[in-house]
Design brief:
By secondary structure, the protein is mainly beta. The protein has eight helices and 38 strands.
Length: 706
């Protein structure tokens, strides 16, 4: 952490010089509105959230700042209907546990998807969420506008625009982990600590706009060896043409270096914060992206947008930053939008090329091209939206994965459709309905990973197929007002259906070239134990039905500011696969509930501010995870992977509520102090088998904004 102090001070000094310059007003007409209730991700152009025809949650910037989140995964986990586990996000039960590979939820940063080229995951700690205008979470298949990866939903963010009068903000926070309830879990002497510093500056002068931010974080970890140290710099530059007043060009970038210890398997159920011997992994990694873009409005009022990205991710070992894998992504998207006689038309084409170099996954080249169109039509209180996308995907010059037989012949592209509608029943009552298809191509890691940790072996499956699915919902949004306080109450019923759903299944995965397996000679290559483990497989069909209630509010009632985000989701995630071999991998084969899911999920966050004082309260609850892989309870051929897991689940066999509390005091409009206690009751709970979450921890935070 000390290594970032001097660069941070230098950055602050430079920004003070930058802001000392004269300020002038601008005249460019292209800009993104910063109005509450306006979202852009649902249609790729601005729309009031009441008119969006699919379920969406918006996380406010003040929630992100005041809760003391250190990465985007923590922030997203605050949203109703969203559950996170070890870097993987599930919306309404759409995702399970996949050992970190692949994602059914797509992250979109500044209008461009951002999944890693090799693992297909989101690098949550590399996203500068502190400087986003807001976080928009779309629930349901959204592949028409954003393509593969949006099978279960979208998490979208746009960075805040640089203001004419300039701004600078500094956030510093420091925390300490308390002792767990069970003394046997405590492996440390001095309590582990964690610290974060974030500095951001932005300014617009004449026809130039610049933002720049630095972020550093250190966490010694409450689990043995599970530490993290990272430093990140990011920024944007925008040029507003004087000669062509409807032209804006620019780029954004981010670069991060990190060192971390990866905790995978616990020692046993009594020592859940201790690692199984020889299973800790030390890694260094780099994440880097640069995003040039061009926005232009032609004389016929057609809006043109060209967005591009180069994205680099590496996975190293404890000594070097590039070792196990290097992934590079080259992305370009062109979109044109135009209003014609009450219709809002959007056309676009996308190129997404990924190159992976890895001794774990092998070397691979994937090409994903697509074209899309969406039409929005409004008449009075009624809105209708329809769109389609044509996807082409090819890996390593093999047969395209998007072959589609439409009855009259074979197409090399796969069509995806979506339709939605909104009706304003009354002035503050909005009814919506939507039906959308989605597709997700497996990540390189899902197909080609081959590794082992402790007694856990994972085998490659190059024959893995793309996942397909659809999502339908019917929802009602009611707006309530009391003075300046506004609340949006939402209720929705939903159905998500998947085919070729990918799961890591337990079994015996002998190569076809091997004639037989034997159990007498452990040193032989065809020894049975060498070929028992997990492999990504298509688990045929699955269906998730449910109902969700949520409420968000902001504003003042008299002198009291009230901010809230509440939600409850009931889900029924079931497998439609009747294969007895597959069902035998369930920890409870009498129950068809999908593995690593549950039926009930509740979230609540309420903050009250009165003059200089404030208090916030958070709570979250999920019911018991009924089904996991039976191998985690019974072991593999007499060897336990997670020692004591069957005993642990027999004792901790119900959901656990978790509560946080925070207090704040504003010394002035510029300076604010927060005291935060996470896991107030020191509850013991897991996100996935063997991953016991943090004990009660305490944090102090200072926020300064100018």
């Amino acid at each position: 952490m000390h290594s970032v102090v001097f660069p941070t001070l230098l950055f602050i000094f430079c920004t003070q010089i930058f802001y000392a310059q004269d300020l002038t007003k601008d005249s460019l007409k292209i800009k993104i509105k910063d109005e509450k209730g306006v979202v852009v991700s649902a249609a790729r152009f601005e729309k009031n959230i009441e008119q969006v025809n699919i379920s969406m949650e918006v996380l406010r910037p003040e929630l992100i700042a005041n809760k003391g989140f250190s990465n985007l995964e923590q922030a997203v986990g605050q949203s109703p209907g969203v559950f996170t586990m070890d870097g993987q996000v599930s919306i309404r039960g759409g995702g399970g546990y996949a050992y970190g590979a692949g994602s059914r939820v797509l992250l979109v940063w500044n209008g461009v998807p951002m999944l890693s080229p090799d693992i297909g995951d989101v690098k949550w700690n590399a996203i500068p969420m502190e400087h986003a205008s807001q976080i928009e979470i779309i629930k349901g298949a959204s592949s028409v506008l954003f393509g593969s990866g949006a099978l279960n939903g979208i998490i979208a963010m746009n960075e805040k625009d640089a203001p004419v009068d300039g701004t600078i903000s500094i956030k510093v926070q420091s925390g300490i982990y308390g002792s767990p309830k069970r003394e046997s879990m405590k492996w440390w002497g001095a309590p582990p600590t964690f610290e974060l510093i974030d500095v951001y500056a932005a300014k617009r002068k004449n026809n130039h706009a610049i933002t720049l931010g630095v972020n550093a974080f250190r966490d010694k970890g409450y689990r043995e060896g599970d530490h993290e140290l990272r430093a990140r710099v990011h920024g944007t530059y925008a040029y507003f043409s004087k000669r062509v007043p409807q032209l804006k060009a620019g780029l954004s970038f981010h670069a991060q270096a990190q060192e971390e210890g990866v905790f995978i398997l616990w020692r046993n159920d009594s020592m859940g914060y201790n690692a199984m011997p020889n299973t800790l992994s030390e890694q260094r990694a780099v994440r880097f992206s640069v995003d040039p873009y061009l926005l232009f409005v032609s004389k016929n009022k057609t809006k043109h947008a060209l967005r591009t990205r180069y994205y680099l991710t590496t996975t190293g070992n404890g000594l070097v930053y590039v070792d196990a894998s290097l992934g590079q992504l080259y992305y370009a998207d062109y979109q044109a939008t135009k209003k014609i006689n009450g219709f809002q038309l959007a056309f676009g084409a996308t190129s997404n090329i990924s190159q992976v170099t890895s001794y774990i996954f092998g070397n691979h080249l994937s090409k994903n091209f697509s074209a899309y169109q969406q039409t929005d039509w409004s008449k009075g209180k009624f809105d209708l939206q329809a769109g389609f996308r044509l996807e082409y995907c090819q890996l390593n010059n093999a047969t395209p994965e998007t072959i589609f037989d439409w009855g009259l012949g074979i197409l090399p592209v796969y069509p995806i459709l979506r339709i939605g509608s909104h009706y304003e029943v009354a002035k503050a009552t909005h009814l919506r309905a939507s039906l959308g298809q989605g597709i997700r191509f497996p990540a390189v890691a899902e197909r080609y990973i081959s590794t082992s940790v402790g007694g856990l072996r994972i085998f490659q499956n190059p024959a893995l197929l793309a996942e397909r699915g659809w999502a339908a919902e019917l929802g009602l949004k009611q707006i309530l007002r009391i003075g300046d306080w506004k609340a949006m109450v939402d209720i929705a019923g939903f159905v998500n259906s998947y085919s070729n759903m990918t799961e890591f299944a337990f079994g015996v995965f002998k190569p076809d070239t091997m004639a037989f397996l034997q159990t007498t000679n452990p040193s032989a290559i065809n020894y049975l134990y060498n070929w028992v483990g997990f492999q990504a497989q298509n688990a045929e069909r699955a269906r998730i039905t449910g109902i969700e209630f949520s409420m968000s509010s902001s504003g003042k009632i008299g002198d009291l500011e009230v901010l809230s985000l509440l939600g409850y989701t009931y889900m029924n995630p079931v497998s439609l696969n009747s294969d007895p071999t597959y069902i035998a991998t369930f920890s409870d084969p009498t129950n068809s509930m999908l593995k690593y899911r549950f039926k009930h999920l509740a979230k609540a966050d309420i903050e009250l501010n009165y003059k200089k004082y404030g208090i916030g309260f958070s709570g979250r609850y999920n019911s018991f995870m009924r089904n996991i892989d039976i191998a985690f309870e019974d072991g593999i051929l007499g060897t336990e992977i997670l020692v004591g897991m069957d005993h642990y689940r027999a004792i901790f066999n119900r959901g656990v509520p978790v509560f946080d509390i925070r207090l704040n005091y504003a010394f002035s409009q510029q300076l604010k102090f927060n005291f935060i206690v996470n896991n107030l009751t020191n509850a013991e709970y897991v996100s996935r088998p063997g991953a016991i979450q943090a004990p009660r921890n305490f944090m102090v935070q200072l926020q300064y904004a100018l």
